[in-house]
Amino acid sequence: MLPTESCVLVTGAAGFVGVNVVKYLAQRKRRVLALDFVRNDLLVADYLKGLDDYVEWVEVDLTDSTRVLSLASRYKLEGIIHAAIFTGVTNDAERVKPKEILTTNLMGTINTLELARVANVRRYVYVSSGGVYGTASDLNEPVDEDSIQCGCPSDRSMTSMPCFLRALALSGRLTVAEGVRPRTLSAR
Ligand SMILES: NC(=O)c1ccc[n+]([C@@H]2O[C@H](COP(=O)([O-])OP(=O)(O)OC[C@H]3O[C@@H](n4cnc5c(N)ncnc54)[C@H](O)[C@@H]3O)[C@@H](O)[C@H]2O)c1
Fold first, then answer.
1. Nearest residue by C-alpha to atom 18 in ligand 1
2. Which pLDDT does position 180 carry in this prediction?
3. Are strands 32-36 and 123-126 parallel, antiparallel or unpaired?
4. Residue 23: Cβ within 10 Å count
5. Domain coordinates of the chain in residue numbers?
6. Which residue's CA is minimally distant from atom 36 of ligand 1?
7. For the residues 84-92, what does the mean pLDDT come to?
8. What is the spatial distance between Cα 169 and Cα 165, in angstroms, rounded to a whole number?
9. CA 47 / ligand 1 centre spacing (Å)
10. pLDDT at 16 over 90
11. Which of 44, 129, 153, 168 is most deeply buried (CB count within 10 A of its CB)?
12. What's the CATH code, domain 6-128?
């Protein structure tokens, strides 16, 4: 892909959602920068057969912020679709790898958002989950972003903390107390 050609970055491109997004875009002749930290295997290659002209692969670990940000100078990114999330985990995997799960899902997302900012990307799509927004009883009824109340980044990061605390506590070796609020002190 030429550095002057606009492309859409798809993260988690070797995963279930990512590879289908890559295929959808490439079939419509959109150039795709397909990112994953695993080499695209034979199954993926076969699934995307005939679309090589539109797809370029990069092997990058999204937790490596330097490598992620380097994409800004190497490619002309017009959009990012972020589907590289540590998913499909069993309770056992949650117990063994809580740090890896949180690092990928938090820092991977933050690094791609920072890439979007630095590269002046016009549109960023975060592939979320029914586990976050809930599922509508009518499957034809869209669940929109307002289902989650968003404050400023610092508020937001704090309201997210109980979830992370619980996720880490799943390792079974940690007792976590939540919801402790110090009494407001009056200034004298
Ligand atoms: N699969 C479904 O049916 C489904 C349904 C609803 C929502 N989702 C959401 O879609 C998103 C993706 O799910 P999926 O099923 O495609 O998962 P997946 O596990 O099939 O794909 C995730 C991909 O991300 C890659 N990845 C993980 N960590 C990475 C890192 N640090 N750097 C680079 N690449 C990394 C993995 O190698 C993998 O190829 C998730 O947010 C999930 O909640 C999936």
1. 15
2. 59
3. unpaired
4. 20
5. 6-128, 149-178
6. 12
7. 76
8. 6
9. 17
10. yes
11. 44
12. 3.40.50.720
Q: Residue whose CA is closest, atom 8 of ligand 1?
A: 129
Residue type, 144: D
Looking from the CA of residue 13, the nearest atom of ligand 1 is 39
User: What is the model's pLDDT at position 102?
Assistant: 85
pLDDT of residue 2: 74
User: Would the CA dihedral through 155, 102, 82, 62 be positive or negative?
Assistant: positive
In whole angstroms, what is the distance from residue 31 CA to residue 9 CA? 9
> Which atom of ligand 1 is nearest the CA belonging to 103?
31
What residues contact 8, with CB distance under 8 A and at least 6 apart?
Answer: 25, 30, 31, 32, 33, 77, 78, 79, 80, 81
pLDDT of residue 188: 47
Asked if residues 105 and 129 have their Cβ atoms less than 8 Å apart, the reply is no
pLDDT in the model for residue 135: 73
**What is the pTM for the complete model shown?**
0.88
> Which residues have CB under 6 Å of ligand 1?
12, 14-18, 36-38, 61-63, 83-88, 104, 108, 127-129
Orientation angle between helical segments 65-74 and 108-118, nearest 10 degrees:
30
**Residue 127 — φ and ψ, nearest 5°?**
-80, 105
**Residue 152 clears pLDDT 80, i.e. is over it:** no
